[in-house]
Amino acid sequence: MKTMNTVLPGPLAPELLHRMDAYWRAANYLSVGQLYLYDNPLLKKPLELSHVKPLVVGHWGTTPGQNFIYVHLNRVIKQYDLDMFYIAGPGHGGPALVGHTYLEGTYSEIYPDISQDEAGLRKLFTQFSFPGGISSHVAPTTPGSIHEGGELGYSLSHAFGAAFDNPGLIVACVIGDGEAETGPLATAWHSNKFLSPVSDGAVLPILHLNGYKISNPTVLARIEDSELDQFLRGCGWEPIFVSGDDPDDMHQLMASALDEAIAGIGRIQDHARGAGDANPNSPKNPNSPPTRPRWPMIVLKSPKGWTGPKVVDGLQVEGTFRSHQVPLLVDSDHLEHVGQLESWMKSYRPEELFDADGRLIPELAELAPEGDRRMGANPHANGGVLLRDLRMPDFRVHAVEVPSPGAVDAEDTRVLGKFLRDVTALNEARRNFRIFGPDETLSNMLGAVFEVTSRQWEARTQRSDEFLAPAGRVLDSMLSEHQCEGWLEGYLLTGRHGLFNCYEAFIHIVDSMFNQHAKWLKVTAQLPWRHKIASLNYLLASHVWQQDHNGFTHQDPGFLDHVVNKKADIVRVYLPPDANCLLSVFDHCLRSKHYVNVVVAGKRAMPQWLTMEAAVVHCTEGIGIWPWASNDQGSEPDVVMACCGDTPTLEVLAAVSILREHLPDLKIRVVNVVDLMKLQSSSEHPHGLTDTDYDSLFTKDKHIIFGFHGYPWLIHRLTYRRANRNLHVRGYNEEGTITTAFDMRVQNRLDRFDLVQDVIDRLPQLGARGAYLKQLMQDKLVEHGQYIAKHGRDMPEIVNWTWGGPE
Q: Is 162 helix (H, G, I), strand (E, B) or coil?
């Protein structure tokens, strides 16, 4: 047992331990100051209520532990010359990251008005969680961050995404024990089955067990150490435990743990990169096959609110949930707490840490790494600095030959797969492009990519496996949308390119992750020091109209509604009607920066409408009249038939062919939409049409029958400012079951027979001719129902229909 005035042995010399502890005290002092102080930053005069912010908002409980970790990471960065940056999983501990980047100098370099002196300290404190200031969470405004405080649960996935293809990088990922209870984080422990010790960097998870969430204990802190050890080992890690509350002992324990972890990472990488057996965790026969390494991690158990007030108003605070947010209420109703706050801050002995001008004393300042080795200045945490454009093949070489509209069928995403294969091959040497998805690359018909790459996989393999290898450009072997999204975001945020392919109905699983990334893009676009990153590209295949065999559970196009809620300068939505348009759109998306691009495309054989030359023009414009399908040239149309999406396009054109056959005098204009945001006003979205251009396409007063891929009300929402109110949208209406492809459209009234009736209902001038055609369409719907009930497939006239152009 430790006796009075003795320190546990460890790697830190007494003088270094003393300085590191002082640096930790400085970080804690800055953290408390950010939470509470409006003035008097160095406590040069007695603290008064007027020196305290009128509204104190923030989180203290996790902050001292994160400050402790940061100090120790600084030491190993300097000692071993590491390329490392920090991800704060418990990102609500914003004071820690802001304070440390201020101490190391990065913050003042980026924000010169927050200078390293007393005046700068005052501004640093005042701005925190204050109107017009900075967030109480780690945020895009925080140097060294790629992970926002609202992204609870995604830290470890982001860390692995950052480590892929960065062989010299170590990502220190601090995981809160509350955060560890989320589904995404619980899944992310298995990311180590996908990390190559040869071509990727390393992730060092630091599970910070401080015992509590907002008002409850945490699960991992309340199980036995042996059970936690078994759990983490079962996930493939080698945990190193650091536990206690005595600062001197904890400094030595943490230093030893980090030395052990860094050495373990080095051994694994050295062996894998040619210095011996790929599994150095235990001695092995050099002739045995290499096995997956067990990477080190640290479990840090320290009190919540460590070094803060132990008791407030007779209640224990340090080491309890009561320290999660602000442990002291300091206001006119709690004047007695002013003195307690002053005593707390003075316990860090600021006069030993800062000189008279408010600068960190030199012997402490020199503990921080220098230049880009500072975690706040690491270029990987500002990935646009490192971003290089992709080498892009000519997408036109994959063009589908279209001798006339609708004359041939093709599987759109299968065609795209060949283009992505070429993108993958061209960028193999650069190692800056990956495809992510939850076990759906083949299902979404992108299998051509496996002609040039494999799925990256570090776990065991069997002879029956396909395309698994220790290195590859595809990461789709884990059935977790959360994981794939997190990996891709981490990859993009550190300066690379990629795409996420997913079934349309299940992309909703990452709604909140998309939210946070879109917010990140919005804020960073307004920060001059943040460089633009590659766009987040979604390919939504296996979409709502191609789920007849899976049924109702797999039918949901609502991600589009969710996406358009975000700021117009960030989001783009594309629904190409055929393969050539899909190629043109995706070439554009992969070249773009700082957007979220959502592309919806089908994988079933569908009619092809446009030659490549016509597709490029159409996609560049984003919307346009299809003259070959229209017959209103030289006159005003009687009706506008609009379509957006591959299936609505097919049904609208089939309806047009029926109308032109039976009502040849009817003037019809066909408008196809590729870029959904064209429908919005130019005053609301940079892609939006002006009112003049919109009216020239859709007219000011003619009826518009609009076939849409998703929920009809989204089109009404995008066009509500337009003059023409005669808009009638047909789309998905939450109807569906195990049925035929065409019956899915019938159930949602997006089929050709219902669309024809819509036109007749809007044009009373059609009279008897319209009445007879409407009756025929109703007869066809009855015939369709009877046919599928008997034969289990769609009628031949549906399956074999082609656009021939009315006589």
A: helix
Q: Rounding to the nearest 10 degrees, give the CA dihedral for residues 183, 186, 189, 190.
A: -60
Separation between Cα atoms, residue 445 and residue 411, nearest integer Å: 8
Please give the structure tokens belonging to residue 644.
């957006």
**How far, in Å, are 69, 93, 304 from residue 66 at the CA level?**
5, 8, 11
Write down the residue that tokens 């050099």 correspond to: 286
What separation in angstroms does the CA of 156 have from each of 70, 111, 172, 223, 340? 17, 29, 9, 22, 38
- Cα–Cα distance measured from residue 644 to residue 560, given in angstroms and rounded to the nearest whole number: 13
pLDDT at residue 752, rounded to an integer? 98
Are 225 and 218 in contact by the 8 Å Cβ rule? The answer is no
Residue 153 gets the label, from left (phi > 0), alpha (psi -120 to 50) or beta, of left
Q: H-type helices in 564-673, by residue range?
A: 579-591, 612-621, 646-662
Q: Residue 438's closest CA among 546, 539, 514, 573?
A: 539
Note the pLDDT tens digit of each residue in 391-443.
999 999 999 999 999 999 999 999 999 999 999 999 999 999 999 999 999 99
Q: Which residues are paired to 195 by β-bridges? A: none
pTM over 0.90: yes
pLDDT(284) > 90: no
d(Cα 177, Cα 218) in Å, to the nearest integer?
Answer: 6
Task: Give phi and psi for 424, each to the nearest 5.
Answer: -60, -45
Q: How far apart are CA 154 and CA 788, in angstroms?
A: 46
N residues, the chain = 807
pLDDT tens profile 549-581: 777 777 899 999 999 999 999 999 999 999 999
From CA 805, how far away is CA 391, in angstroms rounded? 41
**Per-residue tokens: 521:** 């893009």
* Cα 175 from Cα 88, distance rounded (Å): 7
Q: Which residue has the tokens 């089109």?
A: 715
The partner residues of 670 in beta bridges, in order of sequence, read 641
Q: Count the alpha carbons within 13 Å of 81 in the hemisphere toward its beta carbon.
A: 0
Tokens of 539: 């390919």
Element (H, E) at 597: strand 596-600
Locus of tokens 């009373």: 764
Q: Which two tokens stand for residue 422?
A: 């070429």
* 3 state DSSP class of 666: coil
**C-beta separation of 138 from 88 below 8 A:** yes
In a 10 Å sphere around its CB, with 0-12 CB exposed, 13-18 middle and 19+ buried, how is residue 649 labelled?
Answer: buried
Q: What is the per-residue pLDDT across 98-133, written as a single tens digit (0 to 9) for each?
A: 999 999 999 999 999 999 999 999 999 999 999 999
Percent of the chain with pLDDT over 90: 92
The side-by-side arrangement of strands in the sheet containing 295-301 is 83-88, 169-176, 202-209, 295-301, 237-243
Closest CA to 223 of 149, 311, 301, 120: 301
- The one-letter code for the residue type at 271 is H
Give the integer Cα–Cα distance in Å for 619 and 585. Answer: 7
